[in-house]
Amino acid sequence: MTSRSDISAVRAALATQAVETPSWAYGNSGTRFKVFARPGVPRTPEEKLDDAARVHAHTGVAPTVALHIPWDKVDDYGALAAYARERGVRLGTVNANVFQDDDYKLGSVCHPDAAVRRKALGHLMECVDIMDATGSRDLKLWFSDGTNYPGQDDIRARQDRLSEALAAVYERLGDDQRMLLEYKLFEPAFYATDVPDWGTAYAHCLRLGEKAQVVVDTGHHAPGTNIEFIVAILLREGKLGGFDFNSRFYADDDLMAGAADPFQLFRIMYEVIRGGGFTPDIAFMLDQCHNIEEKVPAVIRSVMNVQEATAKALLVDAEALAAAQRDGDVLAANAALMDAYNTDVRPLVAEVRAELGADADPVAAYHASGYGKRIVGERVGGEQAGWGA
Amino acid sequence: MTSRSDISAVRAALATQAVETPSWAYGNSGTRFKVFARPGVPRTPEEKLDDAARVHAHTGVAPTVALHIPWDKVDDYGALAAYARERGVRLGTVNANVFQDDDYKLGSVCHPDAAVRRKALGHLMECVDIMDATGSRDLKLWFSDGTNYPGQDDIRARQDRLSEALAAVYERLGDDQRMLLEYKLFEPAFYATDVPDWGTAYAHCLRLGEKAQVVVDTGHHAPGTNIEFIVAILLREGKLGGFDFNSRFYADDDLMAGAADPFQLFRIMYEVIRGGGFTPDIAFMLDQCHNIEEKVPAVIRSVMNVQEATAKALLVDAEALAAAQRDGDVLAANAALMDAYNTDVRPLVAEVRAELGADADPVAAYHASGYGKRIVGERVGGEQAGWGA
Amino acid sequence: MTSRSDISAVRAALATQAVETPSWAYGNSGTRFKVFARPGVPRTPEEKLDDAARVHAHTGVAPTVALHIPWDKVDDYGALAAYARERGVRLGTVNANVFQDDDYKLGSVCHPDAAVRRKALGHLMECVDIMDATGSRDLKLWFSDGTNYPGQDDIRARQDRLSEALAAVYERLGDDQRMLLEYKLFEPAFYATDVPDWGTAYAHCLRLGEKAQVVVDTGHHAPGTNIEFIVAILLREGKLGGFDFNSRFYADDDLMAGAADPFQLFRIMYEVIRGGGFTPDIAFMLDQCHNIEEKVPAVIRSVMNVQEATAKALLVDAEALAAAQRDGDVLAANAALMDAYNTDVRPLVAEVRAELGADADPVAAYHASGYGKRIVGERVGGEQAGWGA
Amino acid sequence: MTSRSDISAVRAALATQAVETPSWAYGNSGTRFKVFARPGVPRTPEEKLDDAARVHAHTGVAPTVALHIPWDKVDDYGALAAYARERGVRLGTVNANVFQDDDYKLGSVCHPDAAVRRKALGHLMECVDIMDATGSRDLKLWFSDGTNYPGQDDIRARQDRLSEALAAVYERLGDDQRMLLEYKLFEPAFYATDVPDWGTAYAHCLRLGEKAQVVVDTGHHAPGTNIEFIVAILLREGKLGGFDFNSRFYADDDLMAGAADPFQLFRIMYEVIRGGGFTPDIAFMLDQCHNIEEKVPAVIRSVMNVQEATAKALLVDAEALAAAQRDGDVLAANAALMDAYNTDVRPLVAEVRAELGADADPVAAYHASGYGKRIVGERVGGEQAGWGA
User: Fold this and answer.
1) ipTM over cut 0.90
2) Shortest distance, CA A82 to any CA of chain C (angstroms)
3) Span C354-369, pLDDT tens digits
4) Out of the domains of life, which is the source (chains A, B, C, D) (predicted)?
């Protein structure tokens, strides 16, 4: 493993880490079968920011919060940004939503009807306006567009429509703004999704230009897909814009990052670091649904899981690994990687957190703080935030 | 292919076919992202029966309607049964629902808390009471029970609790009543589902006795699972109780039966027939969600797809197939099966429908009838039926 | 369905079809568990051409034969081409093989050792030399390169090496020659494959230029992948070079094309036609292993399956489909596609074959010809062709 | 985590562990594309035992070696057993092979031809004879039987034939002998495998009686299958006979146990321990192919991986876990499990090995021993062992 002298470099790198938490993770969510409401869930964007600020206070590495429009729509985004700052966090990526209006039954920017496409494009433009107001760098675009039945619509024509909408949004971006294009294998579309894989997202982003980048949601792949390979390829092509972290056993389960396959998360972070992607140019976001577990501590745990995976990846003895790879020594090379993975990095990240003024044991600190009980008591009445609001 | 003289036997068999349609297919449904409401959707169990009666009138082979409790709860089930009879259909399988109350967040009959288990069991018992009132033969049990995270609950203790509940319900069944136990790989549980595969359902049913049978939902398997093999095995073991037909490209997509892989549906029906399962002892039900398409004609199409697959399966030249199998002639045996599959059976099933007093072209007849437009005009106000109501 | 007047256009299109059969399909093949030898299997490239010529004679649409080097290495390729011509077929695509030498244990063009990479590149160059001699247009490149264990080698460095090799081969191509780059999810590499998906192949081909095109092997995808979507995208990007047809239930099963999912093959051919890909610019090849079935009739059946899928795809009523798509009528659009699929096109393709001077029932004609028995009698002694020779 | 006083119990449990290594893991293996031979590979069963003895000497927990007949056929099994004993190991499970004769192209005990079935049964009986001679307890049965094409053979008739053969072998077993029935999703059969899942194996074993038990090969499942659930169920039913450990990213990759998903291996071992399966009644075997890596150290690493997963599973704080589960505290329950998984157990298992008289660092000790170099020098000439010999 990495020598003692290098440990301080690892620690320094970890102190620079920034994981963005999503405002919607603090609200209610569920499956098509049931959304289980939880007492204490935020009712306003401000309350979501309060929760996110707790996550940052305890972990020290979650300084920004992603917004979802219209779920986080407010009259005054400047005021919202100030509210966030006062609580020690900042507004981050703006996520567009073109999948929850009745008009979008057959798609949004890929819809066969030009009027629906115009409406969807209008929303995307509005999101850039909001970015101007919040100072957000990134617009994250996920399209639920697709078809459920063979023949339902023309696959290629839908690409043409998609292309047109993306070009219009790209044109509208400011100099310091980017577009992050997300892909997803399936759901809610069940036959063909219009951006189903990294290749499709990549082809569009390539055509658009430097400000268009691909975002990798770790739950959006076919079974057996090697996600870290995609990460390595996109970094090599200069087209990786960021991550939506979560974990899955089956489909887009949206479980806590690192919960289903911690070794995979480690391998992904290893490729990020190896490919020069551990920089602010790559957005490290969570995108999760805490359907049955308490939400704030679930986000804390997820942030910690990303942090621990990063620590392990940073600990890989690059020299030993490279030497074994050069020699074609399969077992030694694998062992070099596994040595880092098998290390218990919890003491190390606890130290890092202490240095950052956060808590050695963030979950325990959260529970000790009484915050969870307080919000249950205070947030009574009103309408709880959820995917629909 | 089957000789001319045998065609009349095929036609006679097809005339006996009965596909049960689910009341909930006529209501609204969707994904976790959005339920798109559709004008004209039923607001009451009676209106669902009206729609189901249209499906039967046009196809001639959909004589019964499955109920879902509490979605189809009424004060007087005798009156509901009479209402159905007047419209030419009958009440069928009763489906229990122990997944939509807030209490069921961590499970129903497998919940760690005995009080929740009692409540769930009470609902199952109530369903048998309803069967007594409706004269339904089958109680269909699908449990969404499971866990999202490793460690969340004890896998084995949950089996013990499941076992206890099933035994209590089994005990309550009347002499002519059965319990159909459904399995499902995942969703809404994402780590471990308590009845995830046919083996688990089979083990429980075996222990319970003859009135407990396994039901195969065609959308509930892992990728690559050979469903017709399971059908053949369960028939051999005398443990196949019925089907929930639908189709899928990815997960439990609940698309129209036969829409995603018509060849698979044919192979399933072939094993049903070969294994002696084309009898009233096996319940052939649909379980689908028409999220974006018009519901009544979607059900009609699904019934037709099952019918066409059955016709093709009946057309297999059993003698030629058996001879080629005996000879180990791989290509000839495969060709014997494919010969039937490649046949256009639409004229044949049109004749069968005509004989049954239904329509040669059910979809066209439905549209010509003006029913679809009429319900849009008439069903205004009230609350549309859906998964939540 | 398509009107009567259009049927002649369909018939004319079918008469132009060309499916390339692979020389190795005529030899022995198997799984890692066992290669079952079959009497009568070719021992030389010439005998493979004899078999391929029978397939063309009976079907009328299999005019070319793909070679695999070194399996089909001969001293005089001009003589081999003449031999083919005399039998009514032509030499087609040249397939390189950089996976069966002991040197290639850790890869070929991506190997960590530059000497192995040079050797592999030398073989690729030799293949282009052979193309010069045979007059072949296409060089098909499939790399088994990859790693079995995380850490075994550097994913990104391997891409750099791959890139370098591809550039060198591209440079060597003549004006009328092309490079078809194949991708494959896994096998024989089990952790990371160096060209695992269409996106990776596309990114390389894009960089190389117009003469580099992606080839889609229908068995090389993750479960749930929508292959016809990839076809549509690659055609839109001008980067689809051809197909390796075969079929699969699980992994790269290499069964007869159309055997596992005939509906999928139809959907693929529909997108080919819709996207303007039914031209000689796209190479329609088979790549199959007839492990347990008789080889020549298995190839005949596969060619027929491709032909029938094409016929159905050509029969789609494009106008009706487009109208339903424009109206957002999901069921009508799906029905327009299914109407063509459900048609029994066997009489139609039989007519086409008759016009081409081939046989109405190619399999029956093959068996009637006595060829299968003859080769069993004649091809005694020598070493049978197989994957290893 | 487990308290200090409990650690000694963990250590004691680990000292009783026994992992059986397979004789064939020491020989050459590969994919259908290529078997890469490696210098120093054993040429005889005795040389395989030599290698296995090294694994046990270094790890202390691999005391038995599984045989594969006919690959390990010898004239005098008593002498072979004595040879093993002298080297500090014992002969273990006998594995039958009914997939590598030309007769088995269409199956063995499920073959349509009774003569082939008789031959296969004869081999199985011979394996029991060998068990009598070696004193082996377990006969492991894996059948490659299945079909590649729909219609190829009758699925149900094949079950009848299978049933008949199993009954005959069961009858032949001695009082202290068992039959372990293995299942596998696919490969080498590509359409339907005759024992494809645990349910099928379970149904047969249940009918046969107590001496028939199911064996779980961790690489033999469909994507997304929860293997530890199957383990829990089979233990609950008293029908788990043992494991074939290996790991996989895609299909039956046969990589080193714990290499692809160490968290899964931990979860499996947790269910083993929780279900009372950490006893000699359960056979813990490896079944792997070291296609590209050095074989003896690969087996050592695999044994260590199983050992480390077991250590972590033993460290789970059962009380804390049970309390959190009882409370329905999803996050706390998951955290209790993860706490053990995240522990670096390498120092602990090193201590255990030291106590057992083995090596703290087995891989380093193996390399330091010079054994690997010695066998390369000594094992020259002769025919290397492999899957085919």
Assistant:
1) yes
2) 42
3) 999 999 999 999 999 9
4) Bacteria
